Amino acid sequence: MIEVNHSKIKETNRKKIIGLLLERNEITKLDISRILDISITTVSTNITELKSEGIVEDVRSLESTGGRKAIAIKLNENCRYSIGVALTPNHIKISLVNLKKEIIDNIRIRHKNNGIEELITIIKENLELIIKKYELNDKKLLGIVFSVPGTVDFENGIIKYAYLLKAKAFNLKERFLYLNVPIYVDNEANLSAYYEFLNRKDMLKNLLYVSITDGLGLGIVIDGKIYRGDNNSSGELGHIKISINGKKCKCGAKGCLEAYTSMNSLMENYNEVAETHISDIYEFEEKYIKGNELAIKVLEEYLGILGIGISNLIMILDPSCIVVGGDINNLLKDKMVLLRESAYKDNSFTNENNCNIKLADFKESYLLGAAMMPIEEFLQIK
Ligand SMILES: [Zn+2]
């Protein structure tokens, strides 16, 4: 028991010291000791350990207030990296981040969605390029996290079903084990929820993320952890039914929420009433920004339905924060009031003061969430 407590204290001290080093550019051991109220001996032991791992380094002598010179140390932010890889129906997106969670490199490759094997080839080529460019090895690279728009078996790194990528029961992790670093496969909405939660973790314990891209997903963070469900299938918000015998959904069923609220459905709705058809969500965005009345009307009707979906979520889980984001980000900027109105219109059980519906900071939160997960784990667990 004493042993457990001892290692727990050691872990907490180390975490606190790294936390402070992440905030400061340069700092002396004495200042660390003073600020964190940890004995100088403990600070020194930890710093020696962190130096041997290449995590901190000496920088220069600093004139301390007492006139004595002291060596300042700093975090070597480029001693560890991690990589996020997002598989989307049109792009492969890769981000490399360092220990300070700064984005060091970003790669974006457009593809024709000709099947998962073709995507694997593109990813392998580009990962190998990054690994070579930054001289990453199994010590420097903490892990690679794949973001997938579909259900996954997180434990085993398997894509269970991602119809947007035409992939079913596909072991993605297995294909990258040769890189000899930890490989994780997670759902896009989970990773977005994780990222948005990291940005608010001092204020919140729970957060829901409604992801609107080619599909409609939901990421659930409960007590600071991603909730995956007993069968890895939680958060399939897109496929709850909102209409009996309604619109056909890409999953094969009818009347799913996604059939009315994905980015695709927004374009379809516009094309149904417009004289000239559009084939890209950016064309819709352009029309909306220019004040096209039809585009505004279609978007407002769409938000009415999305609000119903969000209202259902609030009824079931009673969260204090729901973040909405994805490819819809730019369109939602001026329309959050309308979305909130729709979500609370027929809800006599709770109101806006209890649950804040917010717009995501970035439309690609999933990529940042993926890239940051191994770093966060490294900073937390060690
Ligand atoms: Zn469906």
Overview of this structure, please?
There is one protein chain. The chain is of the alpha/beta class and 382 residues long. The chain folds into three domains: 2-75, Arc Repressor Mutant, subunit A; 79-193 and 366-381, Nucleotidyltransferase, domain 5 (2-Layer Sandwich), CATH 3.30.420.40; 202-360, ATPase, nucleotide binding domain (Nucleotidyltransferase, domain 5), CATH 3.30.420. It contains twelve helices and 16 strands. It has helices spanning 2-23, 29-36, 40-52, 116-133, 188-198, 258-261, 263-273, 281-289, 293-317, 329-332, 336-344, 365-381; strands spanning 27-28, 56-63, 69-75, 81-87, 91-98, 103-110, 141-148, 151-153, 158-162, 167-171, 183-187, 207-212, 216-222, 225-226, 321-326, 356-359. The protein has a five-stranded mixed beta sheet, sandwiched between helices. A hairpin with a 3-residue loop joins strand 12 (207-212) and strand 13 (216-222). Helix 5 (188-198) packs across helix 12. The two termini are 20 Å apart. The model has no long low-confidence stretch (mean pLDDT 91). The protein binds zinc ion (ZN). Zinc ion (ZN) is lined by residues 239, 249, 251, 253, 256, 258.
